[in-house]
Amino acid sequence: MKRRLFAKGAVAATLAATTGVFAQTTSRGVTKLVVGFPPGGGTDVLARLLAQKLGVMWGTPVVVENRAGAAGMIAAEQVARADPDGSTLLMAHINSHGIAPGLQPGLGYSAERDFAPIALVGATPQMLICESNQPVKTLKGLVALCRSRPGEIVFGSAGNGSAQHLALELFKARANIDVLHVPYKGSAPLVSDMLGGHVQYSFEGMTTARQYLGGGKMTAIAQTRLKRSKSFPAVPTLAESGFEGYEASIWFGLVGPAKMPPATIARMNKDVNTVLAMPDVVARLDQFGAEDGGGSAQRFGDFMHAEREKWARIIKTANISVDK
């Protein structure tokens, strides 16, 4: 009898501790997951999947709120100013937490100090692509072409200072080439001009590129992560093609405001890792080419710090500004 009472007491204590961790989070009856991009995009779709799963685990609704604009910086500033009780979270993105700190001198938040990392959700490669009628469709040939015609080969990007632009600048520095960069206002007009023959090459996020690659309109020359994506196992990486260590992924992960209780962060990290291991979630991530998510909060924090330092160096070396 005593043993049974002790066991019941231990279970009750565990439940009480778990409830205590989330007492503040659930006190408002809802947890808000802010996304800095419009509904329907890859980041939004995966945020909604994560929100649905976590809502079931936490026993409280997790609602996605889209605060699109300024490449995710509007959403980031909102969450940076939120109460650190765990009720407001952000799907952080390379734009808001990797590139903007080195690109935007008047940024309204500190990516380093104003957020508590929780977990990396995933990283996708960018694809170096060209319209399929381009005569040069190999990395070695492209480098040779650019060196033979410095400043003439046209590379487009989704915008000045975008992840795609910075992947190009890293490539230029590593390959010692000079090309003509043409920034667009987003990927859609860029792809349209590539198909029209006005732009010869570009780096593009895999989510956008795959619809054209699958249809045969575009050719993938290389991809930008250290290892080949499971979605494109036949496309070589730049790292294995003579550019050792080259990596320019597009990534996203869960963060909250700074000064969140450590116990809340630990519980959220554990639950995100559980969600990321669910077969249906793994299948959805594979559709977007998102890999290597999960791990500790410290791992995600260290990763973001390294990304900020890398892209700040590229931005400074290439003299990139939002006005150019």
Number of domains: 2
- The CATH topology of the largest domain turns out to be D-Maltodextrin-Binding Protein, domain 2
The order of strands across the largest sheet is 2-1-3-10-4
Principal-axis shape: globular
Biggest sheet overview: 5 strands, mixed
The helix content, as a percent range, equals 40-55%
The structural class is: alpha/beta
* Number of DSSP-assigned strands: 10
Report the average pLDDT across residues.
90
The assembly state of the depicted protein chains is: single chain
CATH top level of the largest domain?
Alpha Beta
Helix and strand sequence? HEHEHEHEEHEHEHEHEEHHH
Percent of residues in beta strands?
15-25%
Word description of this protein:
There is one protein chain. This protein has 324 residues and is of the alpha/beta class. The protein has two domains: 2-124 and 249-317, Bordetella uptake gene, domain 1 (D-Maltodextrin-Binding Protein, domain 2), CATH 3.40.190; 126-223, D-Maltodextrin-Binding Protein, domain 2. The protein has eleven helices and ten strands. It has helices at residues 2-26, 42-58, 73-80, 94-103, 139-148, 163-175, 187-195, 206-214, 262-276, 279-288, 297-317; strands at 31-35, 62-66, 88-93, 115-124, 126-131, 154-157, 180-183, 201-205, 218-223, 250-257. α2 (42-58) runs antiparallel to α10 (279-288). The chain is globular and about 60 Å long.
